[in-house]
Amino acid sequence: MLGMVFTEFLEMVEQRFSPELADQMLTQTTLANDGAYTAVGYYPYAEMQALLATLSRLTGNSVPALLQDYGEYLFRRFVELYPEMLAHCRDSFDLLSQVDGHVHREVHKLYPQAQLPVFETLTHTPACLVLEYRSSRGLADLAEGLIRGCIEHYGERNGVQRVDLPAREGLSITRFEISRP
User: Fold this and answer.
1) What DSSP string describes 126-144?
2) How far apart are the C-alpha atoms of 121 and 164, rounded to whole Å?
3) Cα gap 117→143, rounded to integer Å
4) Left, alpha or beta for 160 (phi > 0: left; psi -120 to 50: alpha)?
């Protein structure tokens, strides 16, 4: 898993909770590298799962809720760090429908070894966007947070409906229907 996902997660924990809680999470989680992450490194997904489990225990928040919050935070960070990736998009439908094409292509330029999920656009009308998320990591909660962060960024009040579908070929599959009011 891309190191930037880890470093930004630690930043979110420090900002949302406290630096002390972030340290406590790191010391109470068994990690191969003791929590020393770099943005350009690659780390086992199991370490993110372990960090989330520890944070959930320490805060009383569920792992899905923490992942959704992190997704919203991470989208705001993407806006700050990579504004050029979003500059050509006029609204959330425009950006979200291009995740697999334009956005992931740009991510691969920066991080060639990144293993990204699939965000397939199934329907794109002026009133409705339907995306299918497929991933071997099953981070649909993170994806939902990113979608909600995108909607918030554009100042929209779109609704998001989520349907978790049966896994197929080792991939978790979730359908997101985003509708304009």
Assistant:
1) SSEEEEEEEESS--HHHHH
2) 16
3) 9
4) beta
Question: Which amino acid is residue 16, in one-letter code?
Answer: R
For every residue of 56-74, DSSP letters joined together read HHHH---HHHHHHHHHHHH
Residues 23-70: tens digit of each pLDDT? 999 999 999 888 899 988 889 999 999 999 999 999 999 999 999 999
Neighbours of 163 (CB within 10 A): 12
The answer to whether the beta carbons of residues 10 and 40 sit under 8 Å apart is no
Q: How far lies 76's CA from each of 9, 70, 80, 154, 166, in Å?
A: 12, 10, 6, 11, 31
Does the pTM surpass 0.85? The reply is: yes
Contact between residue 133 and residue 117 where contact means Cβ atoms under 8 Å apart: yes
How many CA atoms does the CB half-sphere of 98 hold within 13 Å?
A: 17
